[in-house]
């Protein structure tokens, strides 16, 4: 990246979550405890689903991949943030910053697509049960997973491509604890209106369309199951409510961050903390706690290998 003064931008300085040492210590302890407790839970979900043949339905295939994506997503920001709490100068290289940005969007959009696929799976299972096994066969599931990877790569490639051509010739301090497009663009020494518009359109439009599509699909499902038997109805409603909770946890902060102009708000860092560290690890756990089949398989796994 060549700058106007013919030097090269080699690093960014992260200002971090807060300048208060007391608040930093409190956040460090909370995030570390949360990370050490919830992260193994995600790997336990993956292990349970892969080791139990009874959990071979597409729903559990997608849940296992959701846990994998969320665990991977948590590794992008949280470990470095925990280390930076005790660093006097929080420095990240330019390449490291761009790499973090790429994988942040690759996994983030991938997870959103996965939630869409999970909604599609529930719609077919509840509204078209006789055709479910034919439509949602293993080949289709793997094809959807491939589409998820390609879509996430294309989205992240666009994000990075829009930023790489920007000149940086001023301060290199990012007012954040990680690298993301809104913070990086503010440091460019050129008019970034068009780039901001393209990035907001690329992010915001995709996020809002997925969000509205998910809400509409679950609304259709809930309307469809009103006439079902009590037992089947309760199970379907429980699954849909769980998915809707995850949708709001995932899309709420994303809409706040990426569907507005890149201006600084007082809540930005707090929302980003929940969006990048807390909520991703919680999503599979929330689903598992409300899923009797997965909990029963976990108990069998513990009885077999622990007790």
TrEMBL record:
Domain of life where this protein originates: Eukaryota
Compartmental location: Cell membrane; Membrane
Every G-protein coupled receptors family 1 profile domain range: 41-287
Transmembrane parts of this sequence: 23-47, 59-78, 98-120, 140-164, 205-225, 237-258, 270-289
Membrane protein topology class: Multi-pass membrane protein
An MF annotation (GO) of this entry: olfactory receptor activity
GO cellular component terms, A-Z: plasma membrane
Main location: membrane
UniProt entry keywords in alphabetical sequence: Cell membrane, G-protein coupled receptor, Membrane, Olfaction, Receptor, Sensory transduction, Transducer, Transmembrane, Transmembrane helix
Protein family membership: Belongs to the G-protein coupled receptor 1 family.
Name assigned to this protein: Olfactory receptor
UniProt organism field: Orycteropus afer afer
Lineage, top ranks: Eukaryota, Metazoa, Chordata, Craniata, Vertebrata
């Amino acid at each position: 990246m060549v700058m106007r003064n013919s030097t090269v931008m080699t690093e960014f300085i992260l200002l971090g979550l807060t300048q208060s040492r007391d608040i930093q210590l409190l956040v460090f302890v909370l995030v570390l405890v949360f990370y050490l407790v919830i992260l193994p839970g995600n790997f336990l979900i993956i292990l349970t689903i892969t080791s139990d043949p009874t959990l071979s339905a597409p729903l559990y295939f997608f849940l296992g991949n959701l846990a994998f994506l969320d665990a991977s997503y948590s590794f992008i920001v949280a470990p470095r943030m925990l280390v930076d709490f005790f660093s006097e100068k929080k420095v990240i290289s330019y390449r490291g910053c761009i790499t973090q940005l790429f994988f942040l969007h690759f996994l983030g959009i991938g997870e959103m697509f996965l939630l869409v696929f999970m909604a599609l799976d529930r719609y077919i299972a509840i509204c078209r049960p006789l055709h479910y096994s034919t439509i949602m066969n293993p080949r289709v599931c793997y094809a959807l997973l491939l589409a998820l990877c390609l879509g996430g790569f294309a989205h992240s490639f666009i994000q990075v491509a829009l930023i790489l051509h920007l000149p940086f010739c001023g301060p290199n301090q990012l007012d954040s604890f990680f690298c993301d497009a809104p913070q990086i663009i503010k440091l460019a020494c050129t008019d970034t209106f068009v780039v901001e518009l393209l990035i907001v359109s690329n992010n915001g439009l995709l996020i809002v369309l997925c969000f509205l599509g998910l809400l509409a699909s679950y609304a259709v499902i809930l309307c469809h199951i009103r006439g079902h038997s009590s037992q089947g109805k309760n199970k379907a409603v429980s699954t849909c409510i769980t998915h809707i909770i995850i949708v709001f946890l995932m899309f709420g902060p994303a809409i706040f961050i990426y569907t507005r102009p890149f201006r600084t708000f007082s809540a930005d860092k707090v929302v980003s903390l929940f969006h990048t560290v807390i909520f991703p690890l919680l999503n599979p756990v929330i689903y598992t706690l409300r899923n009797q089949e997965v909990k029963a398989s976990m108990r069998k796994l513990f009885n077999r290998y622990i007790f």
